[in-house]
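ok so I'm stuck.
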Amino acid sequence: MPATAEPGTLPTSPTVARVLAGELCSGCGLCAGVSGGALAMTTVAPGYSRPAPQGPVAPATERAIAAACPGAIVAPWADAPHRDPAWGPWFRSLTGFATDPRLRHQASSGGGISALLIHALESGLVDRVLHVEADPDRPTRNRMRWSVSREDVIEGAGSRYAASSPLADIDAVLAMPGRFAFIGKPCDVSALRRLATVDPRVVERVPLTLSFFCAGLPSHAGADRILADMGFGPDEVRHFRYRGHGWPGLTRAETHDGRVGEMRYQDSWGGQLSREVQFRCKICPDAVGGVADVACADAWYGGESGYPQFEEQDGRSLILTRTPAGEALVDAAMAAGAIAAEPLPIGEIALMQPGQRRRKRMVAARLAACAVTLQPRPTMKGLDVGRAAREASPRESIKNWLGTVRRIVQNRR
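replied:
not stuck anymore, here's the structure
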């Protein structure tokens, strides 16, 4: 990517301007990462990461942004032996867990992702791993880190329900020697896959991408309200954990003077964070990491109500291999004893993740609401949005269409 402006530069990126106008930004940082300083990620109310112009945008930069920004275009699913409109393409569907008891306990969902990353490092498949961790200066916020060892990965394990921009330095990252694994939200992996269409270094440097089922990205305001419910202010907290140390694990805050606050997952996510999810996530056609090599999720146990139960127990990961590279990684990790896993019928996922299936079948109705209100929409080809919509009842679709129209008109997205 160019580091300086070229002749014919643009005052700003038309793609970014359109994405921001439609509130389609996911905050991934791709645009800033390829812009050579023309764009920079900033935090905007109520606590999302968004690009801000810093200088003119070169034509080559704009082409890269237009090709890869997940607010403009979403990477299509690749071919695989199996495919489901909600769960995406897959080679194998499994449930399993990290065989390291410490990792299984500390990670959020049985440690599947972390165990796979550790195996990739220790087997020499990659030199390092790029992933999100808690910011020690602002514990409810995130920062990026490189992990090069088992201890590094374990230290950074756990869900982080806050804004992150893992691709904000992607040009510099791709210029580094060696190969790395990338773990990010589905939209982050989509952006990286699409960047590979204009930057061959992605294929050379990133042999593995891992993702997870994402219920949407909350703003910082959600975490701040959790702290307020615990009786703490943001500046008082020295450590904050969204989940982990059990399954699902308690949300836990520790203050500088030793006070501790805890909250159950269903209260922290269900009561606070889920209310703060940004608009782009509400129309996401691929919240299940369909373009990653491997996607993992919570393999919740269902209850009599048909809704997952969140009682504390040993963690269990849902593992979907989506590419030959993902298949090879899981095979090798199982052979090495890093993870234990068993086959899962694909139909069982609906009992573990009913919200994901419901969300996917509503995407078409919500996009139609954007169309009728003349709002921009991302390009979403090859993601089975229409197939998923056929599972929705007319009442459900109309309700979501009307609700989305109302929120757009009232500017309450």
